[in-house]
Amino acid sequence: MTVQQAGVDGEALEVWIDQDLCTGDGICVQYAPEVFELDIDGLAYVKGPDDELLQATGATTPVPLPLLTDVVDSARECPGECIHVRRVSDKVEIHGPDAE
């Protein structure tokens, strides 16, 4: 069984966090604990579909369709402006600090 991916016009989306800008407020974890987690270093990271913390720099994870609003709200509310949501197909950011 596959999780339906979120997207604009059905396009798959992914999310990543720039830890250099992360303030460790944990707002993202409050909005979408299925996608984000604070690590022992106090910074937020994305989690893979298997719930594993992805600590590699620039690691991305798919945005599940049922959590799209929560992930977008996380990006909007993040005080560090470090959450980036982009299309998988062309890597264009649609939510976050670099969105047009």
UniProtKB/TrEMBL annotation:
Classification via InterPro entries: 3Fe4S_ferredoxin (IPR001080), 4Fe4S_Fe-S-bd (IPR017896), ET_Ferredoxin (IPR052395)
UniProt cross-references to Pfam families, sorted A to Z: Fer4_15
Cofactor(s), names only, from the UniProt record: [4Fe-4S] cluster
Keywords carried by this UniProt record: 4Fe-4S, Electron transport, Iron, Iron-sulfur, Metal-binding, Transport
Residues in 4Fe-4S ferredoxin-type domain copies: 13-41
Superkingdom classification of source: Bacteria
Signal peptide limits: none
Stated role: Ferredoxins are iron-sulfur proteins that transfer electrons in a wide variety of metabolic reactions.
Name used for this protein in its record: Ferredoxin
Organism per entry: Streptomyces gibsoniae
